Amino acid sequence: MECHEENSADLGLKLFIKIFEIAPTAKKLFLRDSPIPAEQNPKLKPHAMSVFVGVSSTAEKTGKVTVKETTLKRLGASHSKYGVVDEHFEVTKYALLETIKEAVPEMWSPK
C-alpha cells in the first residue's frame, strides 16, 4: 500500500472514526468535550495522518509495523498521560486492520 499524503489524511481520519465507533469512550480522550464533529476537528486530522503515515511507512518497508524502542517509550508515556490503556491498543489494532482492508482490498489478506 503506497502511502500518499493526500490519502493518508483521509485514511487516518477513517481510522480514528472507526476507533470512536468501536470504543466511544476513546473519542473523549482525543476530542474532550469539543462540540466540533470529529471529521471537522482541526487537531484530529493532522494527528490521524501522522499516525497513519507512521504505521504505513514502516509496513511498506518491512512488511510489518515496527517502532523503535525509544519512540515506543515516548509514545507510551505521552498516551498514558492522556488516559490511554492497553485495551485501547487492541481497538486501534482492529480498526487499523479494518481501515487497511477497506482502503486496499486487493492487497488484503488475513495474514
From TrEMBL:
Protein name, per record: Globin domain-containing protein
Signal peptide region: none
Record keywords: Heme, Iron, Metal-binding, Oxidoreductase
Function, as annotated: Phytoglobin that reduces nitrite to nitric oxide (NO) under anoxic conditions (e.g. during flooding or in waterlogged soil). May not function as an oxygen storage or transport protein. Has an unusually high affinity for O(2) through an hexacoordinate heme iron because of a very low dissociation constant.
Domain of life: Eukaryota
GO molecular function, one term: oxidoreductase activity
Domain Globin: 1-111
Keyword Heme among UniProt keywords: yes
Any coiled-coil regions, as ranges: none
Reaction(s) this enzyme catalyzes, per UniProt: Fe(III)-heme b-[protein] + nitric oxide + H2O = Fe(II)-heme b-[protein] + nitrite + 2 H(+)
Named cofactor requirement(s): heme b
The family this protein is said to belong to: Belongs to the plant globin family.
Pfam family, one: Globin
InterPro entries: Globin (IPR000971), Globin-like_sf (IPR009050), Globin/Proto (IPR012292), Leghaemoglobin-like (IPR001032), Leghaemoglobin_Fe_BS (IPR019824)
